[in-house]
UniProtKB/TrEMBL annotation:
InterPro entries noted in UniProt: Haem_d1_sf, Host-pathogen_enzymatic-act, Lactonase_7-beta_prop, WD40/YVTN_repeat-like_dom_sf
Species whose genome carries this gene: Qipengyuania xiapuensis
Domain of life: Bacteria
Stated name of the protein: YncE family protein
Record Pfam families: Lactonase
Gene3D superfamilies referenced in this protein's UniProt entry, alphabetically: YVTN repeat-like/Quinoprotein amine dehydrogenase
Length: 335
């Protein structure tokens, strides 16, 4: 049985992992194409994996303890939150050349990041208890800082109209709403134990949060932060993502190596997907999850195993394991 106390220090895990599985091409001659980008938080690297062949084709040095990734609306760039430092770094997706490093200030420790359809970047700065709006990130970038006043502002979601952002505040056990336009005081609500994962439905009407200490997912009304649904999920749900179609939310349940699938219309958990066994969960350390743009596959970062599992969403079958060297955690995709 996995000791839950061990997961509470997850950001401090040291780098040691078994050899990754051999890369394999897309199964069954499928037409999977595009690229997966992987931040190696222990190796301080950024890598590019070709989804057609299943092979890593590029790897470069990044920054200290890189975490979340976000691709630009035109898929030409990928932004990296440098959790061990103070910058957001931007790389070309074609060749992983670093083209920009945007300074956020002393002790920033950026983590969650969104590259919005409006072309602007939004990132948490956990060390400063704030959110940054980075306008014109590829040009003469302007940065605007918004305080959350909360401990551990870790992950972020941004509304479709870019009027509001929301953070999960691990240390304060809260979710915080930030008004990006009027700069009114932030609003926070206590949501479970150690809320971490956060995702907003495509229509902006429901905010989903996973609380890893409660083994729960919560549906919230975004403006009032009122709880609409409380959904029991798997063990230690570290992340939550929404299928691009908006019909399902999925949690990454680190301690049992699985995924919980929630019907967003009913607010009920409808099935579980076993990515690895509970006995394997500690060795693999399943963290970040990401849907393919068509919603047909889920990519699951198995950080300590140096692999990224590719899962068929409809059947729950693990199709293959892709390379995620250096402690692959943050992932992003282009097709």
């Amino acid at each position: 049985m996995i000791a839950r106390a061990g997961w509470l220090a997850l950001p401090l895990l040291a780098a040691c992992a078994p050899v990754s599985d051999e890369p394999t091409p897309a199964p069954g001659g499928s037409d999977v194409s595009g690229a997966l980008f992987v931040a190696g938080k222990f190796g301080n690297t950024l890598a590019k994996v070709d989804l057609a062949t299943g092979e890593e084709v590029l790897r470069v040095d990044s920054c200290a303890n890189p975490h979340e990734l976000a691709t630009s609306p035109d898929d030409q760039h990928v932004a990296l939150a440098c959790y061990g430092g103070t910058t957001v770094d931007i790389f070309r997706t074609s060749n992983l050349q670093r083209v920009k490093s945007i300074e956020l200030g002393e002790n920033a420790r950026p983590h969650g990041i969104v590259w919005h359809e409006n072309g602007h970047l939004y990132a948490t700065a956990e060390g400063r208890q704030s959110v940054f709006w980075i306008r014109n990130p590829l040009g003469e970038a302007d940065t605007f800082e918004f305080s959350t006043g909360k401990q551990g502002s870790h992950m972020i979601a941004v509304s479709p109209d870019a009027q509001h952002a929301w953070t999960t505040d691990l240390g304060s056990k809260t979710v915080t709403r930030i008004d990006l336009v009027t700069r009114r005081s932030p609003m926070s609500a206590t949501i479970g134990e150690e809320p971490e994962g956060i995702a907003l439905t495509p229509d902006g009407e429901t905010l989903w949060v996973s609380a890893r200490g409660s083994d729960m997912a919560y549906a919230l009304e975004p403006q009032s932060l009122k709880r609409i649904k409380d959904v029991p999920v798997g063990d230690f749900p570290l992340r939550i993502v929404l299928r691009p179609q908006g019909d399902y939310a999925v949690t990454s349940d680190l301690a049992d190596g699985g995924l919980s699938v929630i019907d967003t219309a009913t607010g009920a958990k409808v099935r579980s997907i076993a990515v690895s066994s509970r006995e394997e969960a500690e060795a693999k350390t399943q963290v970040t999850i990401l849907f393919s743009p068509d919603g047909e596959r889920i990519y699951v970062a198995e950080t300590m195993a140096n692999t990224i599992a590719e899962v068929d969403f409809e059947t729950g079958e693990v199709l293959r394991r892709l390379p995620g060297e250096g402690g692959g955690d943050g992932i992003a995709i282009i097709e």
